[in-house]
Amino acid sequence: MAMRQTPLVSGGYYHIFNRGVAKMPIFTTISDYTRALQTIEYYRFTNPPLKLSKYKDLSIEQKSRINLELDYKKDCLVDILSFVFMPNHFHFLLKQSTDWGVSKFVGQFSNSYTRYFNTKHNRVGPVFQGVFKAVEVESEEQLIHLSRYIHLNPYVSSLISKAELDKYLWSSLPAYLGIRKSFVDLGTILSQFSTKFTYRDFVFDHSDYAHELERVKHLAIDIED
Is residue 7 part of a domain? Predict the structure, then answer.
């Protein structure tokens, strides 16, 4: 995957998104989505000791030892605030923690997942479409609305019903609602709300969504363009 020529700012927040080459489906099975989740959890760290494929072959004890060491060091390329995986694209809301952190993280995710996908499907060539798109978030207000935009993506795209949103396993929303544990940085977004239930109401209140989307329209370029 090609690297961005213009560096992003450390400490900055960014909406990152990309899709499958030629709009092809890239997440089609539970195994695909699970692998994508494992990949971003592992490669958010600056210096994981092994490639993910090698890490997955380790015993539970060996994995636990590596996980404890990585968590203890807390040396990350990015903080992941929100994410969603859709059948043919993904969205991340990231804070860059170190120079070139976003580019390195997305590059490692894309390269690792491409190797997995191509091996599984006996194919060669790119899986993702060129260099990922990145738009800087300019305010706390934009940050929370962008988080909602990402979490609503499966519903807005008619992939699932509104009632199924908090059960959609391939986004960070269940972690925000306390339904499952996660590696996601919940504090930055939830600090803007009195409780996680208030955040849930904010996400699920679709009545003013079209209006609020205007606030982040330039941050949420249509992935299908």
Answer: no
**Residue 182 clears pLDDT 90, i.e. is over it:** no
Structural domain includes residue 3: no
Q: Measuring CA to CA, how many Å separate 72 from each of 61, 75, 121, 187, 188?
A: 16, 8, 37, 19, 20
Q: Which domain holds residue 105?
A: 13-219
What pTM was estimated for this model as a whole? 0.89
Write the pLDDT tens digit of every residue in 130-171: 899 999 999 999 999 999 999 999 998 889 988 899 999 999
Q: What does the block give as tokens for 20?
A: 């499958």
Q: How far is CA 30 from the centre of its chain?
A: 16
Residue 34 lies in a domain: yes
CATH number of the CATH domain containing 88: 3.30.70.1290
Let me know the angle formed at the C-alpha of 153 by 111 and 28, rounded to the nearest 5 degrees. Answer: 50
Nearest to 103 by CA among 21, 35, 39, 43: 43
What is the number of structural domains in the chain?
1
How far, in Å, CA of 54 to CA of 73, rounded? 21
- The answer to whether residue 6 sits within a structural domain is no
Distance CA 33, CA 154 (A): 14
152: tokens are 């609503």
Residue 223 has pLDDT above 50, yes or no: no
- Report d(CA 143, CA 132) in Å as an integer: 19
56: phi then psi, degrees, rounded to nearest 5 = -65, -20
Point out which residues pair with 94 in neighbouring strands: 14, 80
* CA 185 – CA 176 distance, rounded (Å): 9
Q: Any idea which residue has 């194919």 for tokens? A: 123
